[in-house]
Design goal:
Belongs to the TRAFAC class OBG-HflX-like GTPase superfamily. OBG GTPase family. One of its GO terms (cellular component) is mitochondrion. One of its GO terms (molecular function) is GTPase activity. It comes from Schizothecium vesticola. By secondary structure, the protein is α/β, with parallel strands linked by helices. The chain folds into three domains: 37 residues, no CATH class; 222 residues, GTP1/OBG domain (Spo0b-associated Gtp-binding Protein, Chain: A, Distorted Sandwich); 268 residues, Rossmann fold. Helix content is 25%, strand content 17%. A six-stranded mixed β-sheet has the order 12-15-11-16-17-18, sandwiched between helices. Strands 3-1-10-5-7 form a five-stranded mixed β-sheet. It is elongated. Bound molecules: guanosine-5'-triphosphate and magnesium ion.
Length: 562
């Protein structure tokens, strides 16, 4: 029989309270501390720790989510009002019912300063406001509130499904079945259904009897002008730049018309008004691909997080075990804070999506070449050989460095053959790039089939995306996959833990190999033809001591500036 008792505390405690199990202090003392629950701070129990060699519990872990599924509900329109003017000495005044307000729209906007989708994963349902019903005395209903979903720059939006109740035939289908059961002839069924469909859009004066209601002949529904049109589906947006204006996703229903609209010579007192339109709902998926300038790629425990701490003010977790980092971290290197950092003069192109400053009014980039004052570095969980087969934490996190301008491969000089480690990493990255390209092609093909079969049934009389270049579904032909998507990026190696014994010979071999790659004597470590081999270099550092890290900043800036 399976053991019913939980795992022994000796097994769990090091994971729950790593500070108690640090290298210092006897085991008995540590366990006593845990058992008695003595309230000593962890720093007292550990050796004096530094910022670059922190105690395992000295870190900050911001909330992070890189995927979210949302259900969007645009606001339905408010109903038109059936009302008549009533005043003293005017018992039978003219109709004065107001129109219903339009329903609110749902928009999406990419903004700077956010790095996670966690706020949205908690919301799940996004509802725009309902338009208010019209009222007597010709008072129109208020428009429903719009909702703007703000997402970080780098978010990809994919529409999964949509439902448009105005075109939904489920109700009429069920009525058709009911009528067929009563054995009516087919022609009368269709006529009745058409009548019923028409009546669905109207509201009748509540005071009238059912026999009177049947006698009412409603006119043809008037055609309405719309301010907003529903973008055709399936929507796919790559929000790789901050969007100056929100992008429309789901349009609210238009409000109904009040009874004064239906006055005619023959019909002085219309006892009906139109209902507000029902609104569209859709399911979308958000996927965040962080946009950092430099992406750190390395095996677990290579020292990536320590390096991030050495280069930036990040307080990411560091620990002497594999998979300390479980989610991506972004750090910012400030180039001109005049506090000991090398003051570098660097320029970036203003159309770089990672750093573009947009004019708040026009939404256009401010100027062509802008002085770079900072750049960002992304640290992701470690990759292991076979990560593309979902070993370790898989390669899911590679999408966060996929769009980085420069890749930095962090190799531990104390963990065996550095060249072998670099080749293994490039192999995984290459396989990931292939996988992504195939996925992208499959999606493109699917989107093309959908477009030609008229899946987008809604009217689109213009371009409703302010940044038209972002509609991926409309890109006609993708070039054949080459694997160059990632391999063409500039890259360099950070050979870390240079303070360990045997680091030097290992580093020499690595440098000789990279020189050969630059000369063209050796192929690119990923094996991809035409990959970037312009100036492959390895920078030796001891991140734990903060030695050699300034060179990384200079080198990174050089590669970013191109
Ligand atoms: N001697 C030495 N140790 C280092 C150096 N850099 C990092 N370490 C140690 O290596 C261990 C792993 O460091 P991390 O920065 O957590 O490694 P990581 O690559 O982020 O690991 P994962 O998040 O698991 O992928 C820690 O115990 C660090 O103190 C270094 O330059 N020299
Ligand atoms: Mg780490």
């Amino acid at each position: 029989m399976a053991c019913r008792c939980g795992p022994s505390p000796r097994v769990i405690l090091p994971f729950l309270y790593p500070a108690l199990f640090s290298a210092n202090g006897s085991h008995a003392a540590r366990v006593r501390l845990a058992v008695t629950g003595a309230r000593r701070s962890s720093s007292e129990a550990t050796s004096p720790s530094s910022r670059l060699n922190p105690a395992p519990d000295d870190f900050s872990q911001p909330y992070f989510a890189d995927k979210a599924k949302l259900e969007l509900y645009a606001g339905p329109g408010g109903n038109g009002c059936i009302s008549f003017r009533r005043e003293a000495y005017m018992e039978d005044g003219p109709p004065n019912g107001g129109d219903g307000g339009h329903g609110g729209n749902v928009y999406i906007q990419a903004v700077r300063g956010e790095n996670s989708l966690h706020k949205l994963t908690r919301r799940r349902f996004i509802r725009a406001g309902r338009g208010k019903n019209g009222q007597g005395s010709n008072r129109g209903g208020m428009r429903g509130d719009d909702v703007v979903i703000t997402v970080p720059v780098g978010t990809v939006v994919t529409e999964l499904s949509r439902a448009n109740p105005e075109q939904d035939s489920a109700f009429l289908d069920s009525r058709r079945v009911q009528m067929q059961e009563t054995n009516s002839p087919d022609e009368t069924i269709e006529e009745d259904l058409a009548d019923e469909r028409k009546r669905q859009k109207w509201i009748l004066y509540p005071g009238i009897s059912s026999s009177e209601a049947k006698k009412i002949v409603v006119p043809e529904l008037p055609t309405r002008d719309r301010l907003y049109y529903q973008p055709r589906g399936p929507i796919r947006l790559d929000l790789s730049k901050p969007t100056p204006r929100p992008i429309l996703l789901a349009v609210g229903g238009i409000g109904g018309l009040g009874n004064p609209h239906f006055v005619s010579k023959e019909r002085r007192k219309p006892m009906f008004a139109t209902k507000g339109e029902q609104a569209i709902s859709m399911q979308i998926e958000l996927e965040l691909k962080l946009l950092a300038d430099i992406g750190l790629v390395g095996l677990p425990n290579a020292g990536k997080s320590t390096l991030l701490r050495a280069l930036t003010n990040s307080r990411t977790r560091v620990g002497n075990w594999a998979f300390t980092t479980l989610q991506p971290n972004i750090g910012t290197v400030v180039l001109d804070n005049n506090k000991g950092r090398p003051i570098l003069t660097s320029f970036r192109r203003s159309d770089d999506p990672r750093t573009t400053d947009l004019d708040s009014l026009t939404g256009e980039p401010t100027s062509d070449l802008v002085r770079r004052t900072r750049f960002t570095i992304a640290d992701i969980p470690g990759l292991i050989e076979g990560a593309h087969l979902d070993k370790g934490l898989g390669i899911e996190f590679l999408r966060h460095v996929e769009r980085a301008g420069v890749l930095a491969f962090v190799i531990d000089l104390g963990a065996g053959d550095a060249v072998k480690a670099l080749k293994a990493l490039w192999n995984e990255v290459g396989l990931y790039a292939q996988m992504r390209e195939e996925e992208e092609r499959a999606r493109e093909a699917e989107a093309r089939v959908d477009w030609s079969s008229g899946a987008g049934t809604d009217v689109v009389p213009g371009d409703y995306f302010p940044l038209s270049g972002q509609i991926l579904s409309e890109v006609p032909d993708e070039p054949e996959p080459t694997g160059l998507e990632i391999a063409a990026k500039p890259w360099f190696v950070v050979a870390t833990k240079g303070d360990l014994p045997n680091a030097q010979p290992n580093f020499k071999e690595l440098r000789a190999y990279l020189d050969a790659v630059t000369r063209g004597d050796e192929p690119h470590p990923s094996g991809v033809e035409g990959a970037w081999t312009k100036d492959c270099t390895a920078i030796p550092v001891s991140a734990i001591n903060g030695q050699g890290v300034d060179r990384i900043i200079h080198w990174s800036v050089g590669l970013l500036d191109g």
